Amino acid sequence: xNNLAVLLIALGLFLGGGVYSFWxxxxxxxxxxxxxxxxxxxxxxxxxxx
Length: 50
Known about the structure:
mainly alpha; 2 helices; elongated; single chain
């Protein structure tokens, strides 16, 4: 496995956890949207590089 792919997948999972945490804290939806978009892009890029 490529180190960059693993790093991107880990970053996507980390951002996904942030989305969940911020959702539980009732943060503004704009923050959730930006974090979710970053998480999806990181996971997709990581999976495509595998």
